[in-house]
Design a protein that fits this description.
Helix content: 55-70%
Order of helices and strands: HHH
Largest sheet: none
Number of helices: 3
Structural class: mainly alpha
Strand content: under 5%
Shape: flat
Radius of gyration: 16 Å
Distance between the termini: 34 Å
Number of strands: 0
């Protein structure tokens, strides 16, 4: 059991470091994002995430097995 947990924790840390690197690079590419955002007009209607962050979020959700996010009111 502890071996499995160690493996899962190591994978989580690697994923977390990758996301942190991408967030650090975000300010460098923030000048490009408004132009792309206007062109793409966002993937999801009403989303406050840039297209790049939406893609990252979709990859994370895919890794989690596409678990659905609970809605307000517990429905």
């Amino acid at each position: 059991m502890q071996e499995e947990w160690t493996d899962v924790y190591a994978k989580f840390r690697v994923m977390h470091m990758r996301v942190a690197k991408q967030v650090q690079k975000l300010p460098e590419s923030s000048e490009e994002e408004p132009q792309r955002e206007e062109r793409d007009n966002g993937i999801q209607a009403g989303s406050s995430l840039s297209p790049r962050l939406q893609k990252i979020q979709q990859e994370i959700l895919a890794r989690r097995g596409n678990r659905s996010v609970p809605t307000k009111g517990g429905e």
